[in-house]
Amino acid sequence: MHKQAVHAVNHQPLLHFLQQDTLRHIVHLKMLALYGEAMTCHVLQQGEEKGCVLLLPTAVSDYDQRTYPDSQFVVLAAATHPDLLHTLALRVPTDQPLIFKLISPEQAEVFGHYFALQRLTAFISYTDQPQAAVSMPAGVVVSKGVVPELLPLFAANGYSAEVVTGYFAKGQAVSFAVYGDGGGDGGETAVCACLAYHNYNNIWEIGALHTLPTARRQGHAQKVVAAAVHHLQINQLRPRYQFHESNHASQQLAKKLGLIPFLTTTHFACQPIIM
Smallest Cα–Cα separation from 147: which of 253, 54, 224, 90? Predict the structure, then answer.
């Protein structure tokens, strides 16, 4: 049986493996696209089975540095068979504080044999169903350039102006907003907005959703997300709508739009093993 574990300087074989199920591995692929040069990637092959473990330095990721400032690496894994994960676990450093982002109970079970995992949180991703078109709602303003008055709304959901403008500068973002005092072209105040931005290949994430407290429970969030899904569909792009596991309102919104869950990413913390 052939075994190979390498530090992947050339990510193409790794990408080919992960792209065989792009939705399942969207977190891995997104991180590689953004931070591939900074990541350590171990690839393993046993016969026809393949796997990998990816180590992302926390410091290079704005979200992870802000959310998990005391960790050294974010650990991601993928494998065609759970047995490979046991070998891959040996490639993960034990002398550093870590964050594991795992995509299945099997991964949590295997890595739990080697690390004292502490569950922190989880995020659920939804996408559209084939042949299930979402209509464009009225009163939503769509913009392919930076709209300054929307930046505070996005910042309220953890998306900095630097990150948002960076996506727009690369032509990889579109905003969707509802305005008060007329709900459209004549409005002066943006009361709700979200972004659609590029993740990997044809998958675009819908995020940064925020509604002003005074405008909540009026259906604005559903309108802007529906507009984002519609825009992506007509441009032959695949939506990824992700939210925190405790966000029941977003879960209900996704169901109302006919979206279906495809991935749960669970975050675990692990402290260094002291010998």
Answer: 224
Strands (E), 103-159: 118-127, 141-143
For the purposes of burial, counting CB atoms within 10 Å of the CB of 138, is it exposed (0-12), middle (13-18) or buried (19 or more)? exposed
pTM equals 0.88
pLDDT in tens, 103-156: 999 999 999 999 999 999 999 999 999 888 999 999 999 999 999 999 999 999
Closest CA to 185 of 219, 221, 138: 138
Q: Which CATH superfamily is domain 141-258 in?
A: Gcn5-related N-acetyltransferase (GNAT) (3.40.630.30)
- Write the pLDDT tens digit of every residue in 163-178: 999 999 999 999 999 9
Q: Where in the chain is the domain with CATH 3.40.630.30?
A: 141-258
List, in order, residues 6 or more apart from 243 with CB less than 8 Å away: 123, 124, 250, 251, 254
Question: Partners of 141 in the beta sheet?
Answer: 177
b/e 81-115 (16+ beta carbons within 10 angstroms → b): eeebbebbbebbeeeeebbbbbbbeebeebbbeeb
What does residue 239 show for φ and ψ, rounded to 5 degrees?
-80, 145
Q: Do 124 and 242 contact (CB within 8 A), yes or no?
A: yes
CB contact at 8 A, 272 and 34: no
CA pseudo-torsion sign 227, 233, 237, 243: positive
CATH T-level fold of 3-125+265-270 = Aminopeptidase (3.40.630)
Angle formed at CA 24 by CA 94 and CA 265, multiple of 5 degrees: 50
